[in-house]
Design brief:
The structure holds two protein chains of two kinds.
Chain A (H helix, E strand, L loop, with lengths): L7 E2 L10 E2 L13 E7 L6 E8 L3 H12 L7 E6 L11 H5 L23
Antiparallel strand pairs in A: 1-2, 3-4, 3-5
Chain B lengths: L1 H13 L12 H20 L1 H5 L8 H26 L5 H9 L17 H21 L5 H29 L3 H20 L10 H7 L7 H19 L9 E3 L4 E3 L5 H11 L3 H14 L1 H21 L1
Antiparallel strand pairs in B: 1-2
Helix pairs in contact in B: 2-4, 4-7, 6-7, 6-8, 6-10
The chains are: A alpha+beta, B mainly alpha.
Chain lengths: 122, 313
Amino acid sequence: MSFLIHKLYYGDYGESKNGAADISTQQTNKAEWPLWEVFIRSKQGLDHKHVGSLHASDAAMAIENARDVYTRRMEGVSIWVVESKHIHASNPDEAEALYDPANDKAYRHPTFYDLPDEVKYM
Amino acid sequence: MEQDFEKIFQDKVDREIRIEPKDWMPEKYRQTLIRQISQHAHSEIIGMLPEGNWITRAPSLRRKAILLAKVQDEAGHGLYLYSAAETLGITRDQMYEQLHTGKAKYSSIFNYPTLSWADMGVIGWLVDGAAIMNQVPLCRTSFGPYARAMVRVCKEESFHQRQGFEILYVLSKGTEAQRRMAQDAINRWWWPSLMMFGPKDDESPNTIQSMKWKIKRFSNDELRQKFVDVCAEQVKVLGFTLPDKDLKWNEERGHYDFGEINWDEFWQVVQGNGPCNKERLDARKKAWEEGAWVRDAALAYANKKAKQKQAAA
């Protein structure tokens, strides 16, 4: 994501009283550590679930940092990290076209079918 | 077109559908969130300093371990929040820069000094208590990443408040000197804690729009009143008093009435003239500057390793 934000207001204390600042947030960071997305398996047998992101210089550091940041209370037994730039996502603007075709296929759900009450265990 | 987007956006917010980073959002919504979330993150990070001051002097190993865990949690909370803000298109380094140059604010409370061990108790009880009051409704805020970060923060924060109250409770059963120390700490922190909720509603230009966008759920004054009502009761358990002669139960309103806040002091502290503003920022800047070589070295090492791997492949 790369866009410019020309004006930001800082300080939730009101903008007229020294909370305001004109800040051009042009990308100038040259030495920032890359961003990683963190996925954690909370216990054996469950899926890894996205929990957030963090900065680290490489994968090993990302895993160590993820342990410190996201599992301080035994929230996980396994960690995945993926550099954020490698994540591809569907476009929310296309959500309708992408997911609508499933809407009119109610026969894909078990509740679509009328069976006599005598039938058990189905 | 813009109008349509805005209508769809507001409609989603009204129906309690969370907004996610890639969804269309009004520019002002994005800016408000960046300001609020980064300010919140900065507060967690700066908030480590007043308590860090007492880690080496905690009165027992138990207290030291607790305080360490609490300060580490605050670092974690800052990191959850920074990454939530980053989903809005600002980078971590930009946020640090805004903090270090004084453009971005953090909670005014952390510009007060921690003079005695009892301050650790009062910070947990009052400062974290006020923060929780603010943070619980934020778990339902309209921006998804912020709400998810707040859920995690709130889960961890409740031990912070309880350990603080416990410190004060133990002191309240202690010697006369210990009780005096605790009461003194309450006296110093009570009013700054009330100021944490921000200016009065009619002076808080951000509130109305933020409520419409469901970034905030309650106004500053509503939360402040709730906090006063809770604390006025809890202080009785400790057998201490809150330093406000106007504090009185109002049967008609069903709330405690309380005295006028010194808003001059509040704005002075916000504008950088509090007792510790300079010290806090200097500590942050020093840590950032003196850590530069570590950040550069780690990056250089990662790049070298990546190149070696490429060459071997």
